[in-house]
Specification:
Largest sheet: 4 strands, antiparallel
Order of helices and strands: HHEEEEEEEHHH
Distance between the termini: 122 Å
Number of helices: 5
Helix content: 55-70%
Shape: rod-shaped
CATH architecture of the largest domain: Sandwich
Number of domains: 2
Number of strands: 7
CATH topology of the largest domain: Immunoglobulin-like
Strand order of the largest sheet: 1-2-7-4
Structural class: alpha+beta
Low-confidence stretches: 18-52
Radius of gyration: 37 Å
Mean pLDDT: 76
């Protein structure tokens, strides 16, 4: 990684050479403003901090020999909300409706050759709770078990295997050591994609179960109805024999009277 001192010196040399070719003063001012913005975007560095989560470092250089007022603006990761910003120095927070993302901005007067450095500390919100993964796996297993008495048990088992594989990949990516916060955020976004795919598979399994379950319930219902009919038949037959016997006894007792 290039050290800050080397970064400043490199930026000064590159942009000093470019500015030396500009003769028109208005063109000089316009290009300088553009250069300030370019430096801003090309100097965004992610630095991990255990206590803060993620630090976004902003570096801008005024390579000119005159003092300049420079507007600075940098977009935050798209998942970031204002409440996730722990520290932003004197920068203001704005929202871009077109990009659907928050950004920090400010305006600073830089002296000739001056280097501006700002830091923005963010919560590490790019983490998927292992409990969420575990609950989804349990729900998938429970749904698969409901298929065991249907003709779709094998298909449900294949769906579960796919869900379990995706959830394992999510867990592995969450546990993997990240080279940089940028890589960490990229892993999170990939994990979210896998997680949503697993949820879609589970929804498909539940939809299939809903189509299969009524048939199984119908069979069960007919069994209950048949049992009730048989029970009532046996009960009625029993009452018939009792009534017939009682009638016979009464008929035998009448002549004796």
């Amino acid at each position: 990684m290039i050290r800050n001192a080397n970064l400043r010196e490199l930026a000064k040399r590159i942009y000093a050479n470019k500015l030396a070719r500009i003769s028109d003063k208005r063109e000089f001012t316009r290009i300088l403003a553009l250069i300030s913005v370019i430096i801003l975007f090309n100097s965004v560095i992610f630095i991990p901090k255990a206590e803060a989560g993620i630090t976004l470092r902003l570096v801008a250089v005024n390579p000119a020999d005159i003092e300049q007022t420079v507007p600075v603006k940098v977009y935050l990761p798209m998942e970031t909300k204002p409440e996730d910003i722990l520290y932003k120095e004197d920068l203001e927070v704005g929202y871009d409706t077109q990009q659907g993302s928050y950004y920090v901005h400010g305006e600073y007067t830089l002296k000739p050759k001056e280097v501006l450095e700002k830091e923005i500390e963010l919560k590490d919100i790019w983490v998927i709770d292992e409990t969420q993964i575990s609950l989804l796996r349990q729900e998938a297993k429970s749904t698969t078990d409901d298929f065991k008495k249907t003709n779709f048990a094998e298909k449900a088992a294949l769906i579960y295997q796919g869900i379990d594989k995706k959830l394992q990949e999510v867990s592995e990516m969450q546990k993997a050591a990240t080279i940089s916060p940028g890589y960490h955020i990229s892993n999170y976004r990939s994990s979210i994609g896998l997680l949503n795919s697993a949820k879609a598979d589970l929804l498909a399994a539940k939809t299939l179960l809903a189509e299969v379950a009524p048939k199984g319930m119908a069979k069960f219902t007919w069994k209950i109805i048949l049992f009730i009919i048989i029970f009532l038949g046996v009960l009625g037959l029993g009452f018939f024999f009792i009534w017939q016997r009682q009638t016979k006894i009464e008929a035998e007792q009448k002549p004796q009277d």
